[in-house]
Specification:
Helix content of chain A: 25-40%
Largest sheet of chain B: 5 strands, antiparallel
Oligomer: heterodimer
Number of strands of chain B: 8
Strand order of the largest sheet of chain B: 6-5-4-7-8
CATH superfamily of the largest domain in chain A: Thiolase/Chalcone synthase
Largest interface: A-B, 35 and 38 residues
Number of strands of chain A: 11
CATH class of the largest domain in chain A: Alpha Beta
Order of helices and strands of chain B: HEEEEEEEE
Radius of gyration of chain B: 16 Å
Distance between the termini of chain B: 33 Å
Largest sheet of chain A: 9 strands, mixed
Shape of chain A: globular
Number of domains of chain A: 2
Helix content of chain B: under 10%
Shape of chain B: globular
Strand content of chain B: 35-45%
CATH architecture of the largest domain in chain A: 3-Layer(aba) Sandwich
Number of domains of chain B: 1
């Protein structure tokens, strides 16, 4: 497979977040504006430098809406809609556009007032009546998206003996990281027993196996290595990327225990010329505890079926051998409907060494893995300094 | 009548499927070129891309591929049904469908369990194919 097609020619030069939490009082567009202002300031660039806008999940014509609101007239836009993996896809697409000379400074944004608007994720079936799922899944009381991941987890447990206690280890480790992150929503320590004893939502998932529901926004500034020279933040290079979509709804996922992360991960590692043992810090979309277990297997950090035992003994936690979801992730830090952009932001901050108490020492290579839809669309990025 | 429950709105691909369900029949499309069955119904074969197909009566038997017991209702209409089973069934024809498992305590359901089709008349116009444990 081809080595990195971008040859360290593209960097993430700035990252920013709005105020994240429950009911912070900002609208969806305000979250994106605030995050964009902070990301550009972080990069040492201004709005006038931006010539491309990428966003998703905004009604209507998303990139045009964001560009208009911010007063940008872009010469390149992208509104790829692959759920929570879209932001990792945008970094790859930004790199493509920049290296092709179509644009120079790309602003990638996300923002949502999900908690304020909807309060409960379980009311977010969000299926258009024209989609087949509206006929063949929703009438059966599909608790979307929780049930889809629960069906995959149940099958994984049956095939490989994965246990609820093992899944809970992911939530426990995430909370340990969150305790070190002053911005995290939930910072109080939890145990495996706390997870198991929290209310059952859709077996095998208890409440604490499921991600949070918050408001929040994030933004990234991607530019060429050349353009980034002289800017004040330490440049973080894109050194590998990969994408794979295998289905849309869970009924049509061929093997519920193996995801598109196999393909996206293999591509990203091959392009980076690296292997899992070269990675210092991992950020995986933890929509549910199980998401992390299956992604670690499929990305090659452990063998298929061994993810349950792999995540135990504090391996993912502070001080563990594979620091994972170091902000506290969607389980403990924040989750305004889609987490993808926050995974990239945390990876960049870790690689720059800006993470204070939760800083992973000597972090040189980070892997970010976004999962969209119903385990449907997988995007892997490998970033480095 | 359960007006809040999301109900299927048949479209150009599925009208024959839902009309059959009202007659308590489970119909599947079979590709005329590669002979594979497919689900959900659509105008083109996702395996060989042929647009020729026949509707076939399914045997109505299969096994549970995976299942979850839902404890929190996604819509108000399901509040009096929790806990209920949401399952993926592999039919003997080789296709997979989402369904509930009726006529069975949720904690008695197992992956691999043989099931057979049954029909739930939800309204006068709409009948849902459903599954229950296979009778020996």
């Amino acid at each position: 497979m081809a080595r990195d097609p971008f040859s360290k020619s593209v960097v993430i030069a700035g990252v920013g977040e709005s105020e994240c939490g429950k009911g912070v009082g900002l609208s969806m567009l305000q979250h994106q504006a605030l995050a964009s202002k902070r990301a550009l300031a972080d990069a040492g660039l201004t709005k006038a430098d931006v010539d491309a806008v990428m966003t998703t999940d905004v009604v209507g014509l998303p990139s045009l809406q964001i560009a208009e609101y911010l007063g940008i007239k872009p010469k390149f836009t992208d509104t790829t809609i692959t759920g929570g993996s879209a932001f990792d896809v945008f970094v790859e697409h930004a790199a493509l556009a920049i290296t092709a000379g179509l644009c120079e400074v790309v602003l990638i944004t996300y923002g949502s007032s999900l908690w304020t608007d909807h309060r409960r994720l379980v009311e977010q079936g969000g299926v258009d009546p024209r989609m087949p799922a509206a006929q063949f899944e929703m009438p059966y009381g599909d608790l979307s998206p929780i049930a889809a991941y629960a069906l995959a987890a149940a099958r994984h447990m049956r095939e490989f003996g994965t246990t609820s206690e093992q899944l809970a280890e992911v939530a426990v480790a995430s909370r340990q990281w969150a305790a070190l992150n002053p911005r995290a929503l939930l910072r109080e320590a939890i145990t495996v027993a706390d997870v198991i004893q929290s209310p059952m939502i859709a077996s095998p998932f208890h409440k604490l196996d499921c991600c949070l529901m918050t408001d929040g926004g994030g933004a990234l500034v991607v530019t060429s290595t050349e353009r980034a020279r002289g800017l004040h933040a330490r440049p973080v290079y894109l050194i590998g990327s990969g994408f794979s979509a295998t289905h849309l709804t869970i009924t049509h996922m061929e093997d519920l225990t193996t995801t598109g992360a196999v393909t996206s991960g293999r591509q990203a590692f091959a392009r980076a010329g690296l292997k899992p043992s070269d990675i210092d810090v991992v950020e995986i979309y933890d929509s549910f505890t199980f998401s992390v277990v299956v992604a670690l297997e499929d990305l090659g950090f452990c063998e298929k079926g061994e993810g349950g035992s792999f995540v135990g003994k504090g391996r993912l936690a502070p001080g563990g051998e594979l620091p994972t979801n170091t902000s506290g992730g969607g389980l403990s830090y924040t989750h305004p409907g889609a987490l993808g952009i926050f995974l990239v932001i945390e990876a960049v901050r870790q690689l720059r060494g800006e993470c204070g108490n939760r800083q992973v020492s000597n972090a040189q290579r980070a892997l970010v893995h976004g999962i969209g839809g119903w385990l449907s669309a997988h995007a892997t990025l490998i970033l480095g300094v | 009548m359960d007006t809040q429950r999301p109900l299927p709105k048949p479209d150009q691909d599925s009208v024959a499927y839902w009309e059959a369900a009202r007659r308590h029949e489970l119909l599947l499309q079979q590709c005329s070129a590669c002979n594979k069955f497919r689900f959900y119904p659509r105008c083109i074969c996702p395996y060989c891309f042929s647009d020729k197909f026949e509707w076939r009566q399914a045997a109505g038997r299969g096994t549970v591929y995976s299942f979850t017991i839902i404890h929190r209702a996604p819509f108000p209409a399901f509040r009096d049904k929790v806990p209920y089973v949401l399952a993926l069934i592999e039919l003997t024809e080789g296709v997979r469908m989402m369904t509930n498992i009726l006529e069975c305590e949720p904690n008695m359901v197992e992956i691999g369990m043989p099931v057979e089709v049954t029909f739930e008349d939800v309204t006068e116009e709409v009948t849902l194919p459903q599954f229950r444990p296979a009778k020996a």
